[in-house]
Request: fold
Amino acid sequence: MHPWTPDSWRGRPALQLPAYPDAPSLQTVERRLQALPALIFPGEISQLRERLAAVSRGEAFLLQGGDCAESFDEFGQEPVESTFRVILQMAVVLTYAAACPVVKVGRIAGQFAKPRSSDTETAGGVTLPSYRGDIINGSEFSPAARQPDPARLLQAYSHSASTLNLLRALAQGGFADLHEVHRWTADFVRRSPQGERFEELADRITQSLAFMEACGFDATRAPQLHAVEFYTSHEALHLHYEEALARYDERKQRWYGASAHMLWLGERTRQPEGAHVEFLRGIDNAVGVKIGPSAKPDDVLRLMDLLDPGQQPGRLVLIARMGADKVAERLPPLLRAVRQAGRTPVWCCDPMHGNTVTSSNGYKTRDFERILQEMSLFFAAHAQEGTYPGGLHFEMTGQDVTECRGGAQALTDARLEERYRSACDPRLNGSQSLELAFRIADVLKS
Ligand code: PEP
Ligand code: MN
Reply:
């Protein structure tokens, strides 16, 4: 294999990257990013890999969720905090149900670049470049907003840094303490059936803690009760940004991606000869790969050889996103081929991206029941093949949006316009997310 360098991807075909009109200003930005501190450090990256190794052995479950795309405008404490608290709630539901540790990874603090199926968008007879995420251009439909602007890379870095600062405080500064479990529920969720079910669970947890403490258990000596580990991830799409944040660890003598704990390859950029695979093969982070319905067993094995030649535990997360109508047919042959090759990646289910439809009134949406269906067929395929269904990858927000149909709130087409805020894909809202966790918990228990 030819030698890897942080810029060796530049010799490969790179899909989904913008053409910057002004190359010198892009280079200036890249140099500034190279000089800025790492956002994530090697020790934390290794720690996530150890946690994922436990998932690959069937000893833990991965919960990876957050926005389809974060936005510079909607940035602030509330969106981050509400997403964080819903992921915590879902993790508690699953930990309680399956009595198994949950590895929590946000699609957050760097999820700013979007692959698009078309390079342009036409509206009212005007054709403009597609919106590619806030790290590249603006979502507003105007020629100025849609122009790729390298200064946005620096903004993405600084938004990621502040989001991380907040996440680290939330995870370690007392908010995530299990004694505070009653404070995690947002008001609009509290009034829903899932909210009530969660409050019952929270009561049981509070009683168990009180019981153990009455028996002499010293909770102050159990750090697991007071803080959580929370990791970040995003799609490694914008390679100029990722290269500028690649850092060399002198101690381990390895390169790592310092923009997130985990990076993933999208369904549209996983060509074995492509630039994205080339970049990811050289860094030491946990790496995800989206696997859609067109993937053949040999494609998956080839990618595994390229990205994980040493077969290291916790290195690879294969994220199946087949669609509810295809998963039962397409997933089992892949599970079988990977098992027969003696490989044990983490297998994770993304029940969102194969189930996107357009509503009668023109919104991009997803049906809650289809999401659940793909999830349960994913579990069934693993049961059939004797492999471990290791996790869930999903798009959500803690806020009370109306973007996906169905759920206990029975959201209909007509109600999508009430609070449809996503500039990209439709997300589950706080109560739909919690409902998903309870439904998965029911499957895990049975
Ligand atoms: C995504 O995760 O937002 C995404 C675009 O997924 P995929 O690459 O699976 O289509
Ligand atoms: Mn998406």
Summary: The chain has a mean pLDDT of 95. The first strand starts at residue 61 and ends at 66.
